[in-house]
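Hello forum,

I keep getting stuck at the same step: I have a sequence, I want structure tokens, and every attempt I make locally crashes halfway through. Rather than fight my setup again tonight, could one of you with a working pipeline run this one for me? It's a single chain of 247 residues.
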Amino acid sequence: MLYAALTLWLLVIVFTAWGVHFLLTRLVKPRVVNVALLPGTLVAQLGHVLGMLITGNSVRNTALMRDDETGDPQSEPPDRQRLPVVGAVVVGLLPLLACATSLYYAAHAWGGSIVSGAPELPTDLPRSLADFWSLLRFFVSSAEQTLTAIIQANLTQWQSLLFLYLSICLTVRMAPFEGIRRGALVAILLSGAIIALIGLIFAGWRGAIESAWPILSFAVGMLILLLVISLLISAVVGLIRIASRSE
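Reply #2:
Ran it on my machine without issues. Output:
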């Protein structure tokens, strides 16, 4: 169940990050949002380029920011994958893995207290309707506990502020870039199956997954918190616009 749960939470990360970025670009000019997320964009883009090179594909039309009003990162997928299955998995997952690895080292250097305060993700999938509702309640409590961990951290120190900024950039940029989104989702599903197969062969593989679980838990908690905040701000802005039109 651990490997199935890992796949589920990776999908939650991708969709939640995608939703947060979508909401932020509706509240603020997209170029401003993408400039603010530049450290995360750099890490994700490096992961994408590395994936392309490892799988034998050429890197074309790749840039951190487009020369338009959106400022979105640019990445053109290859016309034909040299390694049809493995290539798609590597290219789809390396940006996510690069952001997660950078988040791990940033947490180790500057944000250990914040990460340790985040709620731990469940390792079992919901099997009944009651489990499903428990999972929804966990989402709410996850946002609450993550916010509490941030508030209780010493935000007067530059290390905590730097980690908080980098964690926002890195988690939001775990959303796949335009052009490789479908491939990234398929890659997560395929990778889950591959990881489970490796876990059946190598006994120590489960321990490696469990050691990375705190970072995975923090990433989910941070993204859910950002999603809740973005939705609340969007709702308030929408109500203000409706009220101003009715006068």
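The radius of gyration is 19 Å. If your local run keeps crashing, start a new thread with the error log.
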